[in-house]
UniProtKB/TrEMBL annotation:
Domain FAD-dependent urate hydroxylase HpyO/Asp monooxygenase CreE-like FAD/NAD(P)-binding residues, every copy: 8-188
Name of the molecule in the record: FAD/NAD(P)-binding protein
InterPro entries named among the record's database cross-references: FAD/NAD-bd_sf, HpyO/CreE_NAD-binding, L-asp_N-monooxygenase_NS-form
SUPFAM superfamilies listed in its UniProt record: FAD/NAD(P)-binding domain
Species of the source: Streptomyces salyersiae
Amino acid sequence: MSAVPTLVVIGAGPRGTGVVERIAANAPELYAGRRLDIHLVDPHPPGGGRIWRQDQSPLLRMNSMAEDVTMFTDDTVEQDGPVRPGPDLHTWAQDVRAGRATADADPAVLAEIHGLGPAEFPSRRLQSAYLRWVHEQAVAALPPGITVHEHRGHATRVSGSRAGRQQVWIQGRTAPLLADLVVLTIGHLDAEPDAEQRQLADFADRHGLVHLPPDFTADSDLSALPAGEPVIVRGFGLAFVDLMVLLTEGRGGRYENGTYLPSGREPVLHVGSRRGVPYHSKIGYPWQGERPPLPAHFGSGEVAALLERPGPLDFRRDLWPLVAKELGFAHYHRLFTAHQERTTTAWTDFEEKYAVAEPGSPELETLIAEAVPDPADRLDLEALDRPLDGVRHASYDTLQTALRDHITADLARRHDPRHSPDLAVFLGLLSVYGQLTRVGDIGGPGAWWHGFFSYLASGPPGPRLRSLLALSEAGVVRFLGAGMTVATDEDQGLFRAGSATVPGQYVTARALVEARLPDPSTDRTRSTLLRALYEDGAAGTDGGLLRVDPADGRVLDRDGTPHPRRFALGPYTTARSAGAFTRPRTGGPAFRQNDATARAALAFLTGASCRDRPTA
């Protein structure tokens, strides 16, 4: 008698839930009437996983508005499977208030749900409740015969031949789970320190200092940072925002009429980075009018042509021109159609000439200069990426005022619909990211692209930047500038930081915090699961990502051959997608990937259910 086919999903957070949802959506067509056991393996409760777990500070919030977060497909998603619509986060909160849905949450989160507006930025604990509900709906939608089993623990290894069942080993258990297929949806991963971080940690140990390496801020031991003492912070993205919140409001400080009132328990944060400025504010107005017809210059045809080229793709040479052309199209389409008084030609004439002009060419620059008189209305991606290039200050004191002005101007622009081409570029970024996931491995520069995307499109809510301004005015946060450097001073036994923005001047401190996520690494990952996969022949990139087939997420061996029984989805793979969650009606490349993986898995498992094979 044949055993029931088995699928093991390692990681029961949002991506694992997405795979289960797509299994449920596609099973009636591809797996009707058959039995299947799905095993979910995760040390955290299903739905939220580690990052979106319930037990974290209520001060930590999403950087997306409630109406901009969904876990459900719609007709904009390019997928072979059926659309199974469902509520976005705000609509779900309305359903909870109306009694149409239930929320597994404590009283504080329930109170937040009952007051949630569409343009508010929910707490991560509220998002955890939504994700738990979505997970329950996905499981409930599975047809009869498909059963889900939960296993609370860390998967440490996957073994087994390409032709046979896989063994999934779970920490603390003596016998493995047997699987016909394994899907890894393990999210962001911890990493062992690189050479620089090891040197900094050793220096801190020898001198009795504090060094907090790259980590998830919610998991860092911030109690080691003493009140009133200077702390050097390297990193100005979302990890810094979390750090800022936990070390200020989290220590009893509060805001009153735009002014920060310290508790006296805060350290003084000296923050800098490569760019020297925080991520751009989330855009604070809704889209109105005609959307740019995307993709226009970087779509499936261009991707197909790229994939036919021999040899590896170079991001700057092969991809960036297409990316820049697409973002420019989105920007100018909006400018010409919504703010035509700031242009000198008709959109149809401009579009025709723009389409044939080479990216970065003098012809394109001339076309734009003649049609868009004000340089402030032109898209300059290089200037956006490095806003402090060439900027110099004689002292850190003058830099504070200048950077507060920069942040204030960014807040004003990102909340003013007169600058709605910025929102069109945001839509262009989403479209571009969706195409890049089809390309697969784009090498080391792809990491730069991911950072550039996050800087423009995945920044903090406006209120967080207004808090940053208040903290700067209060002297709790001090800006270091761009091109930040960190060094060790053996004579003084202190960390020292400087920047290209204030040349020749430095700040010293007994504490250094790396405010960023660990970089993925094939050789430094702390995931015993991934290390075992690499030892078993899985391929990694120079940038540290697990190589997967962009078509369906199958893990690639070192010779480029897809493994028939192993899939992987998420930010640690070469098919990483943009952001943590999908905005409704934006195509959702993560949804497309989930659907492709689920359909490939069900097709394989259909064969497994039709043939006898041993259970081990």
